[in-house]
Design brief:
Helices cover about 35% and strands about 20% of the residues. By secondary structure, the chain is an alpha/beta fold. The chain has 2 domains: about 1-40 and about 200-285 and about 435-479, FAD/NAD(P)-binding domain (3-Layer(bba) Sandwich), CATH 3.50.50.60; about 85-200 and about 290-420, Polyamine Oxidase, Chain A, domain 2, CATH 3.90.660.50. The longest helix has 22 residues, at about 375-395.
Amino acid sequence: MNYDAIIIGAGLGGLTAGAKLAKEGRKVLVVEQHSKPGGCATTFRRSGYTLEVGLHEMDGPSPRDMKTRIFNELEVFENVKFVKVPEFYRFVNDRVDITIPHDPAEAARRLKEVYPAESDGIDAYFEQILNPKRKPAGGNDAHEKSLGEFLDSIIRNDDLKLVLLGNLGYFTDDPYSISLTYYSVAQGSYYRNGASFIMGGSQNLSDHLANFIRRHGGTLLLNHLVTGITTDDNKLTGITYRKSRSSSQEILTAHGSEIIANAALPGMAQLLPGEFAERLKDGIAGQKPGASLLTIYFGFKNPLRKIGNNSYSTFVFDNSVRSQADILKNNKGDFSRRSFAFIDYGQIDSGLAPDGKSVGAVCCIDYLNHWEYLSDYEYKSGKKEIADIFIGRLEKLLPGISGEIEYYETGTSATVRRYTLNPGGAVYGFAQIPSKPVIGVSSVAENLHVASAWDKTGGGFSGAIFSGYLCASGILRRR
């Protein structure tokens, strides 16, 4: 079969690119190794609960948000309902307990009440994230500040820095290794545009985009694994693939004018032959995959307001984290002290739980090296041990919560790798380090494109959606 575009992977970036191209009349093939579309934008069902894998909150969509234009064009608002999240986050350690709203003026006011001596630094922080100074074209300035360096330059109080970094795990594991520019654009969007949750879970958005592609004549193949990319002269000509959940090893072939990588770029290098693979490796040299996440999914017998919880998202920093410099060390330390987020979806009309019940999740930074060499028994035992640790820690935060747990399940970085094939189980693509080199995919072949968190737009739902839409728009302009 011949296609105008073949998309390797059905994550949000691939689905967005496919939907835009299909809408414009292009013949699209999307090939996905998993049994359902969405990548990390997915849910699963257990004991009557719908458990959300990837989405805690999405920045926007608001009238000023680029996603609004994209969602209008792809009929998302007509088919997917967004529920506003009540506050940005609650931050807790043994010294501080403060709730940060999405409204930046109100957030600054609350912070100044607690830290009056840091008023100038608080103003400087919000000025930066609401009006980020973008890097020069090419992005290779001599030294771009890290987020950690910036905070050290404007604020003296270490606890205030930690409060501002409450949701750092949305982006990275270390404030000193993330680009200030990237963080400012991403974090600023939460303050400018507020945040939402997709009612019923993020799988609803993924399913809509997949169905949009089909309704506009595109083809979506689930449970099929791409095994290679075919080439002729200096051009990519198509893919080879096979069923991923079958004993059959029959290799199939599809031809396409444009090849779009929604898969992890390090993995794409393994699909390309010879010189093309070397070009891609050169093009992504200097990049490294970001961190992964561990998540414990909970089904609760009742809404947690019953035991006094009134916060949607609570970020708990361990008492040993006294400064920014302690964050990375803590993220790589013992789970009994590792900082974590607790999301209580019962605070909103999430559509995830049966009537009278609720759903929640604990989430923390995770690394594959903790899991990859364990036996099956060790792996399962390790997951249970860590779940027990966090249930005990939740009980200290919210007394009575352990008695409300009806179901729980743990997913690790190894789980993420198994379902996404991302190296290290990375959830945000490449780490957004300061002065990050430009990704040189165009040097591989003129008809190879990227539509994913591994693109220059970075990770998260918005980054993947922007990447997919910009990828498709670029192809359409070129053609």
